[in-house]
Specification:
The protein is mainly beta. The chain is built from 1 helix and 17 strands. The protein folds into 2 domains: 54 residues, OB fold (Dihydrolipoamide Acetyltransferase, E2P); 161 residues. The radius of gyration is 38 Å and the shape is rod-shaped.
């Protein structure tokens, strides 16, 4: 006996059954005393233009796969990267005088009776290009210019709501330690809290500021007009 294997797609009806033969559903002639159920594996042989089922194989039809069982979704790929954001503006504000127009440097504190500064760094909309990403690290570049005591001075860094300069005083929220630099010193990787950078990505914050309510120490950081890399923000992020 020779032939090939086929799988019945339905029960025998009359003298024939439909079966998949060589990948094609075909009408197969079945012997009068051979019972065939859907899923049965048959040994079939071609005679002329007709296929004939010779025997039914195995003790029972194989159990078909459960098409309702959905395979687990593949894990999404984890994508990482960095975004470099230059400030759209650096400027300093004093309550009695408003925004300074003589330079773009970022001041903290008060000199003489000229008012207590809030130095502000605005990052515009670029951080929002990472919307949906998770911030894993954030750093800024800072340079201190001549003003106040020459030695390293502590500063207070604040998170700022506005992404661009408002008409009046900026809105400050979270507070933390800022760079402690001597006059002329530079840091190219001062840590910004990841939660602050995340707030900029999420659109709930827009920049950084320097402010101490007591007005001391008096510190002047280079702004964009004095040093082109001033306050460049590098955000490291991931998705997935």
């Amino acid at each position: 006996m020779s032939g090939i294997l086929a799988t019945a797609t339905a029960a025998k009806s009359g003298s024939t059954v439909t079966a998949v033969v060589n990948g094609v559903e075909t009408t197969v002639q079945v012997a009068r005393d051979l019972t065939v159920a859907a899923g049965d594996v048959l040994l079939v042989e071609r005679v002329g233009a007709q296929w004939f089922a010779l025997v039914r194989l195995y003790s029972a039809a194989p159990t078909p796969p459960d098409d309702n069982v959905r395979p687990p979704d593949p894990k999404p790929a984890v994508v990482t990267g960095t975004l470099v954001v230059s400030p759209v503006e650096t400027r300093s504000y004093r309550p009695s005088y408003g925004w300074r127009t003589d330079n773009t440097d970022v001041y903290q504190g008060q000199y003489g009776g000229w008012g207590n500064h809030t130095g502000a760094v605005f990052y515009g909309s670029k951080p929002r290009s990472l919307a949906g990403a998770t911030v894993t690290d954030a750093k800024i570049r800072v340079k201190r210019l001549s003003a106040g005591a020459y030695s390293a001075q502590s500063t207070t860094m604040r998170l700022m709501t506005q992404a661009t300069r408002p008409g009046g005083a900026p809105t400050l929220t979270s507070s933390g330690a800022g760079p402690t630099l001597a006059v002329g010193a530079t840091t190219n990787a001062y840590d910004v809290p990841t939660s602050w950078a995340q707030a900029m990505v999420d659109g709930t914050a827009g920049g950084l500021a320097f402010f101490t309510s007591g007005g001391s120490p008096y510190v002047r950081f280079a702004g964009r007009g004095s040093w082109s890399p001033a306050f460049t923000l590098t955000i490291t992020w991931r998705r997935g």
